[in-house]
Amino acid sequence: MTNTPGQKLILSASVMGLGMHLGAWMARDGEASDYLKEATYIEVARIAESGKLHGLFFADALTNAEEGTDRPSLGALDPTIVLAMMATATSRIGLIGTASTTYCEPYDLARRFASLDHLSGGRAGWNSVATFIPAVAEMFGGRQLPTRENRYERADEFIDVVVKLWESWGEGALVGDKEKGLFADPSLVHAINHTGDHFSVRGPLPLPRSPQGRPVIFQAGSSPEGRDQAAKYADVVFTAQHLMEDAVAFRDDMRRRAAAYGRSPDDIKILPGISPVLGKTSQDAERRKAVLDEWLGTGPELVKLARRVGLAPDVLKLDEPFPHHLIGPDEEFSGSVGFRRSLVNLAAKDNLTVRQLIARYGGGHQQVVGTAQQLAEVMETWFNSGAADGFNLMVDIVPSGFRDIVEMLVPELQRRGLFHRDYEHENFRDNLGLGVPAATAAHA
After folding, report:
1. For residue 432, which of 8, 10, 118 has the smallest C-alpha distance?
2. Cβ neighbours around 186 below 10 Å, total
3. pTM of whole model > 0.70?
């Protein structure tokens, strides 16, 4: 389904260590330790809000198993702590943090994100992930990583419990009547009394309903189980898509699945990732990309590509065609099916060598190297074709990539009538064009 005339793009941006590109920490100005400094995140938050971006997305890796000591971990710091700090420097931009349904408890997570929503004035988002990295299990008592089916069974129940906890205070429960001595109406505060296969939680939360009803739920699963879960619970879906036809099919499928669960298809927003490398001219952008690649070399990117597709690095020969014949069934792959399928489809369509795929795969997302006009053209084409409700920008270098987006891309999108010129609402949910969640409406 194509987007309606006058509809605007949703834009969020990811803060990934010191940049999405693996060579960013070397190519940028500044200390290697900047990813641990308050000033870095305050600067990023203020730049992003000045460009009226809808949200800032903060990943969580739980371990440095992928990066080791080669570079800053893309999710080293606790997201809710960083986002709470960013909230003090901003007033409108959404603040999205990742937290695992495999290695968290629903009560603790519901309380943390409800706290962030209150303290930020209704701007919190939770990116729900069912952890698939085996090394994470070793950090939590050595428990074996669950199978995909079991991960999603637990995740479904986890999200259900979190939503119930967020709804455990009804609308208007906090009365604050000093003359009557009535702080809260006990008839509007209830235990959830949840007992399931994975969790037993009495509830309620110790704090009232958050300013936007409940935090916005993000999800990024692309396997059949992940899509089904997103259709039930997610407000926004992040996805990795290199080909527009794949993106159109994905968005159509998610809207159909949401409708099958009794939801309006317009209440689930689809944001493919896109990795921009911008310059004032095409030559400037190419030089920026060349500098990043030169600092890094092909070795680390080869290893990451191998992990994304589930192959050993030594079977990937740089100047030979990508070995499609070695790719096993998605059902037997324990990693991210969305990243894998997007990369494999790109390599197949354009008959790429491994080296060519590394140059184009953008850390797992579609990469555009060029001017703001060239990037806006790609985004407009995808948007008008029904491939996306917006995009999650995978920023190449922190903070200069954010400045490029705000100073070059945003004005171009506004000139084309594709992006708003200011925030229209106080809270994140309304700025995304999402309605009041069904459970919240029922309480009201």
Report:
1. 10
2. 9
3. yes
Evaluated on CA atoms 102, 106, 112, 114, the torsion sign reads: positive
**363-401 pLDDT tens trace:** 778 999 999 999 999 999 999 999 999 999 999 999 999
Spatial separation of the C-alpha atoms in residues 147 and 135, rounded to whole Å:
14
Task: Give the pairing type, strands 182-184 and 174-177.
Answer: antiparallel
Q: How far is CA 213 from CA 180, 206, 319, 380, in A?
A: 26, 16, 53, 32
Angle at 278 between CA 275 and CA 279, to 5 degrees: 165
The region that residue 305 occupies, defined by phi over 0 for left and psi between -120 and 50 for alpha, beta otherwise, is alpha
Question: What tens digit of pLDDT does each residue of 246-281 get?
Answer: 999 999 999 999 999 999 999 999 999 999 999 999
Beta bridge pairs of residue 294: none
What tens digit of pLDDT does each residue of 179-196 get?
999 999 999 999 999 999
Total H helices, total E strands in the chain: 17, 13
CA atoms within 13 A on the CB side of 303: 10
Classify each residue of 8-22 as buried b or exposed e, where b means 16 or more C-beta atoms within 10 Å of its C-beta: bbbbbbbbbbbbbbb
Strands 55-58 and 94-100: parallel
Cα torsion angle, 143, 145, 147, 151, sign: positive
